[in-house]
Amino acid sequence: MSLGLPSSRFDVTSLDFDAPAARQHSRTEWEALEADEQATGNPVQPDLSISHGELKLLLGRNAAQLEVSKARVSAEDCARSAQVGGFTEANLYNWEVKPKTVLCVLTDKGNIVRAQVSRIVGGQPGLTSAPPKQIEFTVTVWNSST
């Protein structure tokens, strides 16, 4: 799966591991999703979003950011790491997410996700004006019923 920077600094790109789907939203569409979330209490569908150079975990999810050497492959280990948490957002201008980084995520549907950054496209580390254009993930999803 891949998550690209929005075409406009006002837009939002999102990734939903449960669907699975990536989507770009205009600011108006995104604000409508957030308003619906506040009115109904139901979380927005995507799990991660990128806007204004920030990779963010959305409300209703838990996640941990791990180095690949410390990230085990089992659903139980990933779920345990995500429950402990620690990841809420990363600044892409500061390159806080690097290749081989693993995100363990508990989605709003209760699924367990191990998303490893397999490739970063564009940008240049060390230059705050050159964030990555796209982050590609290798994703494993364990269904909450298993």
Question: Could you write a compact summary of the structure shown?
Answer:
The protein is an alpha+beta fold and 146 residues long. Helix content is 16%, strand content 36%.
What do you see in this structure?
With 146 residues, the chain is α+β, with helices and mostly antiparallel strands. Helices cover 16% and strands 36% of the residues. The protein contains 2 helices and 10 strands. The chain has helices at 27-40, 75-84, and strands at residues 2-4, 12-16, 21-25, 48-51, 54-57, 62-66, 89-91, 102-106, 112-121, 134-142. The chain has a 5-stranded antiparallel β-sheet with strand order 1-10-9-8-6. It has a 5-stranded antiparallel β-sheet with strand order 3-2-4-5-7. The longest helix is centred in the N-terminal third of the chain and has 14 residues, at 27-40. The two termini are 22 Å apart.
SSE run: EEEHEEEHEEEE
- Average pLDDT value? 86
- The whole-angstrom Rg is 15 Å
Helix percent reads 10-25%
Number of helices: 2
Which parts are unreliable, with pLDDT below 50 for 5 consecutive residues or more? none
Structural class: alpha+beta
Tell me the major beta sheet: 5 strands, antiparallel
N-end to C-end Cα span: 22 Å
What is the number of E strands?
Answer: 10
Can you list the strand order of the major beta sheet?
1-10-9-8-6
- Report strand %: 35-45%
What is the 3D shape? globular
